[in-house]
Design goal:
By secondary structure, the protein is of the alpha/beta class. The protein folds into five domains: 4-105, 3-Layer(aba) Sandwich (GIY-YIG endonuclease); 113-183; 204-390, Rossmann fold (3-Layer(aba) Sandwich); 393-438 and 500-633, Rossmann fold (3-Layer(aba) Sandwich); 646-733, Ribosomal protein S10 (Alpha-Beta Plaits, 2-Layer Sandwich). The chain is built from 22 helices and 32 strands. The chain has a seven-stranded parallel beta sheet, sandwiched between helices. Helix 18 runs parallel beside helix 19 (615-621). The longest helix is centred in the last third of the chain and has 18 residues, at 657-674. The chain starts with a strand and ends in a 6-residue tail after the last strand.
């Protein structure tokens, strides 16, 4: 009896078609299989999303070829992708494209192979001498292979013996050696050596938490997700390590998500060192891998050779068999939110994947998101706490400096209290971190005569001056220009560069402390692949006294000799038109402060602020997350903001302002006609950042209790609405960025 499949075609905009399975391939085709199918006169790749014994379609054609023997996507991952498409209001094809990396979808990309030679038989000394008289180069090759007592790459063998590869191949023709193709692993960490380290003894609080995590791992029924609220330095990572060890002992696999690629090197080093002793392979997935490295890491996971996966948000789709636990470190971070379609949230998908796979889910943070903490308080998640730092280390003392007073008598960048604190720490040979979440030297180019502000021609923001390159740069679209020497408007030479970035902070610190070794860490200087790792290693070994940086140094790093953290401007993200501004400020201050005092010496944090009495700053000062949560959640409930509703942001963009406005108005009117009464539809308006990348942007905000039905309605309206070719609408469910 014939069988049929529904195939979702690659790059099809979400279209799927039915095909018949050839009799010879009936057992080989299952949900998740990659196949090549005919579409008109072409052969196209696609993914099998359903198998059935009947079809209503006419003119059914057969599958041409099964591309992969074993399906690259399990039914569980197919189900996860389907949920992404329904929830985040995007085509299923886009969700599957995200779940299955492009390098795996490409049939022409495979494993890297090289030719290796080995002796075919024993060669006596007499035979070698005979060969040497006729062909001395061939004799050298034989001797070299005898010394290795195994196989050797043909290219390396030829180089070692200073002969041409043809010499090696000539010996193969004589039957003296064999040449075979062997797979070469493209391991992103293959050149590094990881020394095994033993597990640490858990303190009383950690032991209680670990026991609860073990119950979730060992339980027969699907457990509740666990939210681990642990202060900075409380030993959350050690619990992650021991929980994964427990899963591995039970024959399962694990996924650890980290919020940024910058955190991956230190995390990978710690995890590979721990599991080196047990010979469990750790795979790494993130966007900085080469195409070949990503291909090989993915296949190591799929084959079961690597059962522990560490990566950024897309690692939530890693094809781990017998998944036992999914861990999301720093679960509050907004970098888990994808900024392109599908705009999924890695943390939420981790919880859903745990539900689908019936495995444990552990969310960890010193400053949980209000959504996750609300889920824990209301019983949806299980809440576990770590209130103490390991080894009885004290939480750092936080001092708030009122810059309204300090700016009148000192440098507007380094206040007198921060300068004195840096001096004292350097005298004791201790290290300092200075944090400012803004790159460049000056943030605004301003003419004092005519008031001209040098803005990006493509975006509604001012250009940032980078002094080292003598360029003004747009940090939104990347627009680059030579820094002007006079006002582009009135030609006055008295143009001023105002505002502060990390480059100016570095310059100021070097002038104030000429004997200190100062290094900056931001996206401008960390462009080389190994730059981040090299700088952190130098800082760890004491070769750097003061580290100036952006948020890439704000979290997840452990340096025992850092005793002082200075936050140059705590107000930077506090007054944005975003209901999460206070939450993000509190989280960032707490996380940055947590880098201090992780050794034997008590840490100190100096926070410079022009609004020192703001609740987010004061609660962070006292390390009072619960107090901040209670105040913020009360305001969120009154205003109908998440977590009490889902927030959907529709952005319409076009290079033509009026065309974009008219399309937004039309879309808003259509939505108003179909949305339910309990759904709040805001008025359409220009985005706070009205122009970006040459496009004018307009927003429509929607708040709703349930999301799936609303998402379907929005999708239906957009499918029926015909927009001009240069107008695009993007739906962001549970939006994190409102600019």
């Amino acid at each position: 009896m014939p069988k049929f499949v529904r195939v979702l075609l690659d790059e099809s905009g979400g279209r799927s078609f039915d095909y018949e399975i050839p009799a010879a391939a009936t057992d080989a085709v299952v949900v998740g299989s990659r196949v090549r199918v005919p579409v008109r006169t072409r052969a196209v790749l696609g993914t099998v999303i359903a198998v059935s014994e009947t079809t209503d379609a006419d003119g059914i054609r057969e599958i041409l070829e099964v591309v992969s023997g074993e399906p690259p996507m399990s039914p569980q991952l197919i189900r996860l992708a389907e949920w992404v498409a329904n929830y985040y209001c995007c085509p299923l094809e886009a969700a599957l494209r995200t779940a299955l990396p492009g390098v795996i979808r490409k049939a022409e990309v495979g494993h890297k192979t090289r030719l290796a030679a080995r002796l075919a038989r024993e060669i006596s000394a007499e035979e070698i001498e005979t060969i040497r008289r006729r062909a001395p180069n061939q004799a050298e090759v034989i001797i070299a292979l005898q010394a290795t007592q195994g196989a050797m790459l043909v290219s390396e063998l030829a180089e070692k013996c200073s002969v041409a590869p043809q010499t090696v191949k000539a010996l193969a023709k004589k039957g003296i050696l064999t040449i075979e193709s062997e797979t070469v692993a493209r391991d992103p960490h293959g050149s590094e050596t990881f020394v095994p380290n033993a597990k640490l003894e858990l303190n009383a609080e950690q032991a209680v938490v670990f026991a609860k995590v073990c119950e979730a791992v060992d339980g027969a029924s699907p457990p509740k997700p666990i939210l681990l609220h642990g202060v900075t330095g409380s030993g959350k990572t050690e619990i992650y390590l021991q929980a994964i060890e427990r899963v591995l002992e039970r024959g399962g696999g694990a996924i650890l998500l980290v919020p940024e690629i910058s955190l991956t090197p230190q995390t990978v080093e710690r995890f590979k060192s721990r599991f080196a002793a047990t010979h469990h392979e750790v795979a790494v997935l993130h966007s900085h891998l080469s195409e070949g490295e990503r291909h090989d890491e993915w296949h190591r996971i799929r084959s079961g050779a690597a059962r522990v996966v560490i990566g950024a948000r897309s690692a939530v789709f890693a094809p781990v068999e017998k998944l036992g636990i999914v861990i999301v470190d720093e679960e509050h971070e907004n970098t888990y939110k994808q900024e392109e379609t599908p705009r999924y949230h890695g943390r939420d998908l981790a919880v859903l994947r745990g539900h689908i796979e019936k495995c444990a889910v552990l969310l960890g943070s010193a400053t949980p998101s209000l959504e996750s903490y609300h889920n824990a308080v209301t019983g949806k998640y299980e809440l576990l706490r770590l209130t103490l730092r390991v080894d009885d280390q004290k939480m750092p003392f936080i001092r708030i400096v009122d810059m309204r007073m300090e700016a009148k008598k000192s440098s507007p960048i380094l206040s007198d209290p921060l300068t004195a604190a840096i001096t004292a720490r350097l005298e004791k040979k201790e290290q300092v971190i200075l944090f400012l979440n803004r790159r460049g030297f000056s943030t605004t180019l301003l003419c004092g005569k005519c008031g001209y502000v040098h803005e990006c021609p493509n975006c509604s923001i001012s250009l940032t001056f980078h002094r080292a390159a003598n360029r003004v740069v747009c940090h939104m679209c990347g627009h680059l220009a030579v820094a002007p020497t006079k006002c582009p408007g009135c030609k006055d030479p008295g143009i001023k560069y105002t505002g502060t970035g990390t480059e100016k902070v570095e310059d100021t610190v070097c002038r104030f402390f000429p004997k200190a070794i100062v290094k900056r860490m931001d996206a401008d200087v960390m462009q080389r692949r190994e730059a981040y790792r090299e700088t952190l290693n130098a800082f760890r070994t004491g070769k750097i006294d003061i580290l100036v940086g952006t948020q890439m140094i704000a979290k997840g790093l452990h340096f025992p000799n850092v005793t002082l953290v200075g936050i140059v401007n705590a107000d930077m993200g506090l007054h944005l038109p975003d209901f999460r501004a206070s939450e993000r400020t509190f989280q960032l201050l707490t996380q940055v402060a947590g880098r201090a005092g992780r050794g034997d010496v008590e840490g100190e944090v100096v926070v410079q602020s022009y609004t020192p009495f703001h609740p987010a700053i004061q609660f962070a000062r006292h390390h009072d997350f619960e107090g901040f949560y209670e105040q913020e959640i009360e305001w969120r409930q009154k205003m109908g903001q998440p977590p009490f509703t889902h927030f959907i942001l529709i952005t319409v963009r076009s290079p033509h302002q009026e065309r974009g406005r008219f399309s937004t108005e039309t879309l808003h009117r259509r939505l108003k006609e179909v949305l339910l009464a309990n759904v709040t539809l805001g008025e359409f308006a220009p985005a706070p950042l009205e122009k970006s990348h040459g496009n004018f942007r307009f927003h429509i905000a929607i708040r709703a209790q349930g999301i799936l039905k609303v998402s379907r309605m929005i999708r239906d309206v957009l499918d029926r609405l015909t927009m001009p070719e240069d107008v695009f609408a993007v739906v962001d469910v549970d939006a994190m960025q409102l600019m």
